């Protein structure tokens, strides 16, 4: 059983530390800021051996250099290797990476960026999805097409319903408000919006989410096709 620690950073990022007690291995996922990540590891007596980057954006990779200097290897998407100058291992669709005895599948899930990858740990029932899928939302289309993002979201949503999805930002409240606007008759969305409002008022995290929750309340996942998805994504980009 892996231990997973959220390290909040910047205004709304979650940088993830994953620790395998059996082997002592520790991985930092998307360490945008090295300071709180190294501090959180040190506080627990953990040494970070690997960094897994989902994509090149600075809020996900700016800590690579300092954590690498402290002894970690940097693994990230091959398609973005030139934009992740610290990279040691370039990952492609179907590659396997390991934390102790646990294996993660590398999935290419383009849309937010052209080479964005996700790490899927089937035995643990978890996936690190970066800025592809958010609780009740999805990443902006900076580099990819609506068709790519639609496919990436459908693929993640086809994981077992109890899979826990670790996304990289606390965007749930804004996403829930948009979802309630886009699908006003959906009771599950209305209920989750109310729950998220209470959680955020109490200062609680709303991540990770699960595949089951997203199938019920994520309007982007629930889009019937890439055209409907594109319309929703565009409307969210301008939603107050
Ligand atoms: Zn990003
Ligand atoms: Fe981000």
Molecular structure report:
With 240 residues, the chain is an alpha/beta fold. The chain has one domain: Ribonuclease Z/Hydroxyacylglutathione hydrolase-like (Metallo-beta-lactamase, Chain A), CATH 3.60.15.10. 32% of the residues lie in helices and 25% in strands. It is built from 8 helices and 14 strands. The protein has helices spanning 34-43, 58-61, 64-69, 146-157, 172-182, 187-201, 211-217, 226-237, and strands at 3-9, 13-19, 26-29, 50-52, 73-77, 89-91, 96-99, 102-108, 117-121, 126-130, 133-134, 137-138, 164-167, 209-210. The strands form 3 sheets. The protein has a 6-stranded mixed sheet with strand order 1-2-3-4-5-6. The protein has a 6-stranded mixed sheet with strand order 7-8-9-10-13-14. The chain is globular and about 50 Å long. It starts with a strand and ends with a helix. 49% of the residues are buried. The mean pLDDT is 98. Residues 55, 57, 60, 112, 131 line the site of zinc ion (ZN). Residues 57, 59-60, 131, 168-169 line the site of fe (iii) ion (FE).
